[in-house]
Amino acid sequence: MLFRDFLSLCPDGITLALNIKADGLSRKMKEELLFFPKIDWFVFDMSVPDMRDHLERKNPVFARMSEVESDIPWFDKCDGIWLDAFEGLWFDRALIDKLLKLGKHICIVSPELHKRDYLPLWNMLKTIPEYKAENRLFLCTDFPEEARIFLE
């Protein structure tokens, strides 16, 4: 399937997280997404050199932060953080608050994606008023409908 054909299937207003697994896509990706101005999108997980190219093209970039990746390249230029926890819940509400206060968007990887219990994280997310008040906190989950109901 061509990327443009895929984008044509996306409803207006959707937030599309694009996991980048190959370098050199920043120009073409931006060109294609210009045809779909009602899609909210960002890229994440690219190599550091490719991140630089995305940032130079003003593509919305979320940098990965995890228990093994705490130094964020070009933190000030990134639109958001892809907050991941490979081994266990290493971050807390204070870090989320700090990142939100710094003006960052955050997409949190839900623990079930790493074969762990998601309820401790989801319970913490229920306590964050910015989750409902602003559209700057996202959850990447295998259970989107369950999460929506739980977090409302």
Side by side, the strands of the main sheet go: 1-2-3-4-5-6
- Tell me the overall shape: globular
**SS-based structural class?**
alpha/beta
Q: How much of the residues is beta strand, in percent?
A: 15-25%
Distance between the termini: 35 Å
Number of strands: 6
Which value, in Å, is the CA radius of gyration? 16 Å
Which regions are unreliable across 5 or more consecutive residues at pLDDT < 50? none
Mean pLDDT: 94
Largest sheet: 6 strands, parallel
**Elements, N to C (H/E):** HEHEHEEHEHHEH
Descriptive account of the structure:
- The chain is α/β, with parallel strands linked by helices and about 150 residues long.
- It has seven helices and six strands; from the N terminus they run αβαβαββαβααβα.
- The protein has helices spanning about 5-10, 25-35, 50-55, 95-100, 120-125, 130-135, 145-150; strands at about 15-20, 40-45, 60-65, 80-85, 105-110, 135-140.
- The chain has a six-stranded parallel beta sheet with strand order 1-2-3-4-5-6, with helices on one face.
- α2 links the parallel β1 and β2 (about 40-45).
- It is globular and about 40 Å long.
- About 25% of the residues are buried.
